[in-house]
Amino acid sequence: MTSPTRTDGDAVRHGVAGIDGYRAAAGADAGGDAAGCSFVGAGEGPEVPLAPRARLWPALGAVYRAQLSRARVARIPLLFVATFQSLGIMVLMRGVVDGGAEARAVVAGSSVLVVAFVALNLLAQYFGQLRAGGGLDHYATLPVPAASVVLGAAAAYASFTVPGVVVTAVAGSVLFQLPLGGLWVLVAVVPLAGAALAGLGAALGLLAPRPELATLGGQLGMSAALLLGVLPAGGLPLAVRWARDLLPSTYGVEAFARTFEPHPDWGHVVADLAVCAAVGVLSLALATRAYRWAATR
What we know:
mainly alpha, two-stranded antiparallel sheet, about 0% strand
């Protein structure tokens, strides 16, 4: 049986020219040393060098831009739903909460809930459908690190939450008569809570054997963020408070809620954000490992 790879002069010259062009576009020296690159060949034909593997940050930027442009139109209606949901929760809670620590918890939890809806729920559905439809095979053939695919998709989905979080936080502050001076901390809360929740959502979608289970897992996670993040922690049973401490978004909620106090304890705010960042790194590492596992099955 003959090899499907053509080894005649024209085919080889055409293939080498195309590969040299790709390497030149990637910044590699097409005429330089090819050490460290992979080679393929067939029969007696010459071996053709493959392009070098892309680095993490350029590949991450490319995946992020592709995901952002692809999902921009489709995600805007869902972002409106997430924001409207959080605003509705605050209006309902206004009838039973007057102010103080409970009001701060409601506003902070409702704001981070927008992040949970998009980064956890929608990302779990996206990766579940991507795995079921064979989309992971496309990404697996690209010369990009697995971490860049997970981080790029997670960052794109988290980016859609920024307008909704700002609108919810401002509206909630006005509704419950809370100070607006600490809203700048959202610059840290949104990416850190988004990273933690997006990593968890991606892992749920990649590990679920069927897309329906990925959707169910994302919705259950968002429900946990709703019940454990919006409700004030003081009145919850001890076992529920322990479960609340295990939720990645809790520390983003706590950090944001502390900024509404008359004299915020910025040391505790930084500590909460540090815990949120550590959980985000762990959850994204789990999602990267889940991606590698799902792409090779």
